[in-house]
Design goal:
The complex is a heterodimer of chains A (205) and B (982). Chain A is of the alpha+beta class and 205 residues long. In chain A, 22% of the residues lie in helices and 26% in strands. The chains are: A alpha+beta (205), B mainly beta (982). Chain A: It is found in: Membrane.
């Protein structure tokens, strides 16, 4: 079913299954205005992505051409832009919690308002104008659940870890070193005047 | 090794892209959000049923909202598009809110309880005309009583159930203007009254079921009609004739038309031009003559009789039915600081049903509108509540002699914003104790630790939140060490000045601008802009800071201006003056006088500039700098930008020695057939740049071209100046320029073929970022242009810096023609943009973030590193270490970096940033219909510990370390002892 129908007068048109709009006129139309069309589409939010926030249609806005027209969704998710001239248009859907790709919509003058829709982000063309969010948006950082690693990774944890390393591993390493070499190294150090741990802590000796 | 670990760790921290992000429990700690609706145009009460009492309002900000009548809170609200102004609002079938908008061409129904749109109908329209909405009052679901909409020359009958157009009738015939559509209750006949060429009254009778014209009558009226009309009953209207001195009653009973003329001079003495006021009163009309409001009763034959007269400053409501077929209306008049609310019966003006006096804040001005609603008290008598709209746009509910609630709706139309410091905390002012004892302090931090480790129970979480709010002391009225507490001074369209506290967003003071002369022509000047007049810091510490409000008497740009100086601490007007000339442009100069008052130049329409403050000291300062004052003007319609300089004192023409004549220095003329100016922008004059040089990865130096005299101009082809997508890519091109405003030299020109506006740009330091639409790709694009100084580029080493041609001591002149070069890069951006701003910090060291206000009314913080022309597809290792992000074709939208998190700033119009004292932090204030404030740290708070910092963990670590040292000491002692024994 073509979602776009010509809406000049003399024409009764029909918008999808649920709502039947009769827009008939017996009056002559005002001349001079170019042919205008109606774009009808639908926003569908998959139930599975609706984590936390219920898919509320009442707060969703559909924007044509960066703010030229703004419309809202009906309870069944359908939206309509009236009096749209033939040409290329941009439709954006704004819903808190979701990211929708803008949609490029070509309304053909030759084919009585036939529409071609393409998602500009993914370059995927749509057979019918059913807009689905590319992804759900989480505006807050998730608090990571408590685990030991997060403490260990924190600067304080690293500090403690390093101290533990120095205290328990270093003496073990010292033990493995040849005592003579150790003495030589110590002498070298003292001759160079580099403050060593032992010189800092004379009380232990 | 430890150093290495730390280095690695720091490297990891610095290379990670810093995004603004919040945990959910941090929302509302640093930010606040206020929801408004704007100045109310129409209000419809819904109080019949038991349960929630509400009032449906439509406003000048194109908002339709449902408010809680008890508390004034918003149940739901919808902000329609900017071109979708609401013409009428009503309730149909007791469950739908019907709005008519876009000059009578869009009809929508909203579900009353939750605001969900139920149906939307586009109505045919052919010409501009009045738009009228008439909703039948009965609750019956019946196609015999459709909603009648007149707009665009057509009368439509629309079913309230599903929005189906039942029939429509063309009234676009030549010269025919429909004035009223009336449907007597219980009747199937609709009367459509209109004028042909303002001289012939025509009444159509239309069958409401089929839309067929039952009969048509017309009658010539020799004098002709003027616009004012009031329908007094279902078969009578009263109009003014074209001389505005005769009231004509048109009676169209049963298909006949008759006129009844009454001279206003017969009703009241010394009458001037009359004006019919809008309130709908049964069998009565209100006419404004000679600054008095007279009530005229219309009897069955159309005879007029004056029954009462009131002073001019009276606001009236429509009449509403009360018990026993009586109708009542409310009127409010001022007396001193009080307002008097009276509810009277329409048929008997002596019967006063209600008389109340209410103390009213002077700074709310006069009452503009009254909407009244009645309820049955427990003793079966009638009670009334009145919703009033004040001059400052605030909305108040009056009931039982008191203000039940009030909403500061003026804040929905903020036009200009500045910030101001709070007073310094003086000695003797007691500081509220934050933490009482060490035990409490420790307990609090243990709680916080539990919270951050996700071990806290819900009660603990609540306790943490409360503690955070309390402990921060953020709403105190004194300056704090970090500069987090400030005042946001906002000027609204109603001419009211508000001071908001950054801590919690409360209104510290508010002030309605007054005309200094109280003259007839200028009762209430409209505010244009706001400037920091006096920011004392060095010499004048004991002076209070003040702001300058520039206003204008009337909407015309040649109207005389008004200056008002307002003390920021107290909110009192220090002085105000009629300046006697128009205000075209206000130029704050970079000079201050002895008391730190900033010098301002105000340009008028005659090409003169006037110096303020008008003191001899200011004059002497200005005369010293006389040759160094330049400015420019943009004539967007003609495509001309002109540069001006001072010429001489205009003493030849006037005796005013503070007035100066100017001379034109240069002009830049854009070809009008191919380029139209759509956007101009300069740097913020008070922006601080930390360093002029930028070090490349290959140890190369780049000198930023940091000039305060750069103007960014964007032009598009005239065809592409409209909405996006309205042209083909071949027809439109976008050209941007960087122009030096001293010399008029064009430093840079960049053309984007196949692109069009609107252009939203931000200019900071040496770069411009702008957002526009690419028609070829059919996507939005963002381009960054950075401008560098080539002439200083050879100052590579220290010796050249000191001794080279462009060395440090060489004077920098604005007249010089430095060789500049630019770098630019473009990216796709996936959203429409309303406004862009950039963070600003005290010393300019902190990296910058772009704040992009999207059309979804959210604000995205985007690191400047994403819009860096040095980005390449495969950055080298050195570049990566410097933090250059690999090039992608589009800018990322990271949901966590929305600074508005899960909120929306409905109707977003502008974003203001101001530095805090702490270098890492910046204040961000966004305004639109809503207000939003938050504090940002673009590179995280590297110079202070965050609120989240776990002191308890630090303490535990220290304790653990001390214990470990002690234990090892004991162990080693023991070991040594045992070794010695051995």
């Amino acid at each position: 079913m073509a979602p776009i129908l010509r809406s000049t007068s003399f024409l009764a048109f029909l918008v999808f299954q649920t709502s039947l709009f009769l827009f008939a006129s017996t009056l002559p139309i005002s001349s001079g205005s170019e042919d205008s069309y109606t774009i009808t589409g639908r926003v569908r939010i998959p139930a599975s992505t609706a984590i936390g926030h219920a898919a509320k249609f009442s707060n969703i806005k559909v924007v044509l051409n960066g703010g030229q027209y703004i419309t809202f969704l009906r309870p069944d998710g359908y939206f309509t832009f009236h009096k749209v001239p033939a040409g290329t248009h941009l439709i954006e859907v704004y819903a808190l919690g979701y990211f929708f790709s803008p949609v490029r919509v070509d309304v053909s003058a030759r084919h009585r308002g036939k529409v071609q829709a393409t998602l500009t982000e993914t370059r995927r063309s749509l057979t019918e104008l059913v807009l689905e969010p590319l992804r759900a948006e989480q505006y807050y950082e998730m608090r990571e659940p408590f685990n030991v690693m997060s403490i260990v990774k924190s600067p304080m944890g690293l500090m403690v870890g390093f101290m533990v390393l120095v205290m328990f591993v270093m003496p073990k390493m010292m033990e493995n070193i040849d005592p003579e070499e150790m003495n030589r190294a110590r002498e070298e150090m003292s001759s160079q005047g580099v403050p060593s741990l032992s010189s800092l802590l004379p009380a232990r000796r | 090794m430890a150093i290495r670990v730390y280095l690695l760790f720091l490297l990891f921290l610095s290379s990670a892209i810093v995004t603004y992000s919040l945990y959910e429990d941090q929302a509302g700690l640093m930010d606040w959000h206020q929801r408004y609706i704007g100045k109310v145009k129409h209000a419809v009460f819904h109080t019949q049923k038991t349960g929630r009492k509400r009032v449906i309002v439509s406003t000048e900000e194109n908002v339709v909202a449902s408010l809680d009548l008890r508390l004034g809170e918003i149940f739901w609200r919808h902000v329609l598009g900017t071109k979708d102004a609401i013409d009428g609002v009503d309730i149909a079938l007791g469950k739908y809110v019907i709005t008519l908008s876009s000059e009578g061409s869009t009809l929508r129904a909203w579900n009353l309880p939750d605001g969900q749109m139920v149906w939307e109908t586009s109505l045919h329209s052919a010409q501009q005309s009045k738009s009228l909405l008439s909703v039948p009052v009965n609750l019956k679901v019946d196609k015999d009583y459709p909603i009648l909409v007149f707009g665009g020359g057509y009368l439509h009958a629309v079913s309230a159930i599903d929005g189906e157009v039942l029939w429509k009738k063309d009234f676009t015939a030549e010269g025919f203007e429909v004035q009223r559509v009336l449907q007597p209750p219980g009747s199937r006949i609709i009367y459509v009254l209109g004028f042909v060429n303002s001289a012939e009254a025509v009444v159509y009778q239309i069958d409401s079921k089929t839309g067929e014209v039952v009969s048509q009558k017309s009658m010539e009226f020799p004098g002709g009609f003027s616009g004012g009309i009031s329908s007094v009953s279902s078969d009578k209207v009263v109009v003014l004739d074209s001389t505005r001195s005769i009231l004509v009653t048109i009676i169209f009973l049963d298909g006949g038309i008759s006129f009844q003329k009454t001279r206003i001079s017969d009703l009241v003495e010394d009458s001037g031009n009359a004006e019919i006021l809008s309130p709908l009163l049964t069998n009565m009309l209100a006419v404004k003559v000679n600054k008095r409001t007279i009530f005229v009763r219309v009897d069955g034959e159309g005879k007029l009789e004056v029954v009462d007269s009131l002073s001019d400053e009276t606001a009236m409501s429509d009449s509403l039915p009360v018990a026993d077929d009586q109708e009542a209306f409310a009127s409010i008049h001022h007396e001193g600081s009080k307002i008097h609310l009276m509810v009277k019966l329409v048929n008997d003006l002596d019967t006063v049903l209600l008389k109340e006096s209410i103390q009213m804040d002077q700074h709310r001005g006069r009452v503009h509108k009254v909407f009244v609603n009645n309820y049955i008290r427990t003793d079966r008598s009638n009670g009334f509540r009145a919703l009033i709209v004040m001059e400052d746009h605030s909305l108040l509910l009056l009931q039982q002699g008191a203000i039940v609630w009030s909403r500061e709706e003026g804040l929905a139309s903020v036009t200009d914003v500045t910030t101001a410091e709070l007073p310094v905390e003086k000695d003797g002012v007691s500081v509220s104790k934050v933490e009482h004892t060490l035990v409490d302090w420790l307990k609090g931090h243990v709680l916080k630790l539990k919270g951050s480790l996700l071990l806290a129970s819900p009660e603990d979480v609540a306790a943490i939140q409360e503690m955070r709010l309390k402990s921060s002391g953020r709403s105190k009225l004194t300056r704090d060490h970090n500069g987090f507490r400030k005042l946001i001074i906002a000027l609204t369209r109603a001419g009211k000045l508000f001071a908001l506290h950054t801590g919690d967003g409360r209104i510290v003071w508010s002030m309605l601008l007054n005309s200094p002369s109280k003259s007839e022509a200028c009762e209430r000047p409209s505010g244009i802009s706001l400037y920091q007049w006096q920011v004392p810091h060095h010499h004048a510490m004991d002076e209070n800071p003040s702001v300058l409000v520039v206003g204008r008497c009337g909407s015309d740009s040649s109207a005389p201006g008004v200056l008002s100086f307002v003390d920021v601490y107290t909110g009192k007007e220090i002085s105000s003056s009629d300046i006697g000339h128009s205000v075209v442009q206000v130029l704050p100069l970079p000079f201050t006088d002895e008391t730190e008052q900033r010098l301002h130049l105000i340009a008028d329409t005659n090409g003169h500039v006037h110096l303020y403050p008008k003191t001899s000291e200011a004059l002497s300062i200005f005369e010293r700098e006389f040759q160094n004052v330049y400015w420019y003007t943009v004539e967007a319609d003609d495509g001309i930008i002109r540069g001006h300089a001072m010429k001489s004192s205009c003493s030849g023409e006037t005796a005013d020695k503070y007035c100066f004549t100017t001379r034109e220095l240069w002009t830049v003329v854009f070809p009008s057939e191919s380029e139209k100016i759509i956007s101009t922008l300069t740097r913020k004059p008070n922006e601080v740049v930390h360093t002029q040089a930028k070090v490349n990865t290959d140890q190369d130096l780049l000198y930023k071209y940091v000039s305060k005299n750069l103007l960014f101009v964007a032009t598009v082809s005239p065809k592409g100046a409209g909405e996006i997508s309205s042209v083909t890519p071949e027809e439109s091109a976008l050209v941007v320029y960087l122009i030096d405003t001293i010399t008029g030299r064009i430093l840079h020109r960049l053309s984007h073929q196949g692109c069009q506006g609107p252009v939203h740009a931000v200019f900071s330091e040496n770069w411009v970022v702008y957002h526009y639409f690419n028609l070829r790709a059919h996507k939005y694009e963002v381009t960054v242009v950075e401008i560098y100084d080539q002439s200083r580029a050879e100052n590579k080493n220290v010796w050249k810096l000191i001794l080279g041609k462009h060395n440090l001591t060489a004077p920098i002149s604005s007249y010089s023609r430095p060789e500049v070069f630019t770098k630019s890069q473009s990216y796709f951006f996936a959203q429409s943009v309303k406004t862009i701003a950039v963070t600003s910090t005290a010393k300019g060291i902190t990296s910058k973030q772009l704040l992009i206000g999207t059309i979804g009314d959210q604000i995205l913080a985007l690191d400047k590193r994403f819009v860096d022309p040095r980005r390449t597809l495969n950055p080298s290792q050195a570049e990566k270490e410097e933090g250059i992000i690999p090039l992608t074709d589009s800018l990322p939208i990271i949901p966590q970096s929305y600074i508005t998190h899960s909120l929306k700033v409905e109707g977003l119009r502008g974003i203001i940033t101001a530095p805090a004292k702490l270098e890492s932090t910046t204040h961000v204030f966004a305004y639109g219909v809503d207000l939003f404030y938050t504090r940002l740290a673009p590179s995280k708070t590297y110079d202070s510990l965050t609120d989240d910092f776990s002191y308890a963990l630090l303490l535990i670590t220290i304790v653990a370390l001390v214990a470990a040292i002690y234990i090892t000491w004991v162990l080693s002692e023991k070991k040594e002892l045992s070794e010695k024994w051995r």
